[in-house]
Amino acid sequence: MSLFSLTNKTPDWFIVCLLNSKYISEYIDDFINNTQTFQMNDARILPIIIPNKKQLESLKIIFDNAISIKKDYFNKNISRDIMEEKLNGIQNKLDKEILKIYDINN
10 Å Cβ neighbour count for 44? Predict the structure, then answer.
């Protein structure tokens, strides 16, 4: 399965951030598809809010940090435990940013 943004307002890495957020994950499970199989048609009906420039910059930092942590792990620079601990922190930041974009609890 491949998923690409059709507009220059939402880079592909933004879609990756959305799909990895707890909010969108729960939205998919509750309203779109409660099975383990996420389909292209499921992705097409996601409510995607176009982020502003500041929100995109914040998410890009989070995305780049997650990629860097995974690279450090795969290059054997950090242990699995350290990777998971760091990624848990990144996950929390990602979830907060997505909730801000969707104006949940603000």
Answer: 9
Cβ distance 9 to 50 under 8 Å?
Answer: yes
Per-residue pLDDT reduced to its tens digit, 93-103: 999 999 999 98
Which amino acid would we find at residue 7? T
Q: Is 60 left (phi over 0), alpha (psi -120 to 50) or beta?
A: alpha
pTM beyond 0.90, yes or no: no
Q: Can you tell me which residue has the tokens 């995305």?
A: 63
Distance CA 56, CA 62 (A): 10
Q: Where are the domains of the chain?
A: 12-101
